């Protein structure tokens, strides 16, 4: 019951923080669906049972996506530490990008730092990438050209290669999501390449 209590507190906290946000897909999905799906995947598809991990999954985008300034970020972390334990806060921070850096640099850092993350941060990051790829496969952002989708898939694969070795089910679910997304999008690029070659 204690565990259900903290999980519900995390859902309430995260829902309030993300209340005005939507996912990138062309179908307008409330943002909170995403952290709920990541937590659900960890428990019900990948067999994870650690409450701290589940709570961190529910909170995983709160610091990255719901503050604008350094002061707001500090205030939010303070509020979170009044409710959630140190392990939860530290995993949440481990999966939070430094938004003061350029996007390109942040993306490279995810690749470079992947293998140095804690076990729970690695599990959470793989689950996050699985859900992002499933979303891109099933409900892609309408303003993303094919090239951007392919780049995202390639980049995710590189990040996850540094996260492997913590849960075989997560790895299989990731590989499956990547494969199905590629088979949806990449035959088109292959055809385009062939057509381009023919023209030359
Ligand atoms: Zn996420």
Short description:
The chain is an all-alpha fold and 200 residues long. Helix content is 72%, strand content 0%.
Helix content: over 70%
Calculate the terminal CA-CA distance, rounded to whole Å. 67 Å
Biggest sheet descriptor: none
The H/E string reads HHHHHHHHHH
| Subunit organisation of the chains | single chain
| Strand runs, count | 0
What binds here, in terms of ligands, is: zinc ion
Radius of gyration: 18 Å
Count of individual helical segments: 10
β content, as a range?
Answer: under 5%
Shape: globular
Low-confidence stretches: none
Specify the structural class.
mainly alpha
Q: Indicate the mean pLDDT.
A: 93
Describe the structure.
The chain is an all-alpha fold and 200 residues long. Helices cover 72% and strands 0% of the residues. The protein contains 10 helices and no strands. It has helices at residues 2-17, 33-44, 51-59, 62-65, 70-83, 86-94, 103-113, 119-138, 146-161, 168-199. α7 (103-113) packs parallel to α9 and α8 (119-138) packs antiparallel against α9 (146-161).
């Amino acid at each position: 019951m204690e565990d259900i209590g903290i999980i519900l507190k995390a859902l309430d906290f995260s829902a309030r923080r993300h209340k005005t946000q939507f996912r990138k897909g062309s179908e307008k999905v409330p943002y909170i669906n995403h952290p709920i799906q990541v937590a659900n995947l960890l428990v019900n598809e990948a067999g994870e049972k650690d409450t701290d991990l589940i709570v961190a999954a529910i909170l995983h985008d709160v610091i990255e996506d719901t503050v604008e300034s350094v002061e707001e970020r500090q205030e939010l972390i303070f509020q979170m530490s009044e409710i959630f334990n140190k392990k939860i806060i530290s995993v949440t921070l481990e999966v939070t990008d430094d938004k003061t850096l350029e996007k390109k640099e942040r993306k490279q850092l995810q690749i470079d730092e992947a293998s140095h993350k804690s076990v729970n941060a690695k599990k959470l990051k793989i689950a996050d990438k699985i859900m992002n790829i499933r979303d891109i496969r099933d409900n892609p952002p309408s303003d993303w050209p094919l090239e951007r989708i392919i780049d995202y898939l390639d980049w995710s694969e590189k990040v996850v290669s540094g996260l492997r070795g913590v849960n075989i089910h997560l790895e299989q679910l990731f590989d499956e999501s990547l494969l199905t997304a590629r088979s949806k999008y990449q035959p088109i690029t292959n055809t385009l390449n062939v057509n381009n070659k023919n023209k030359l």
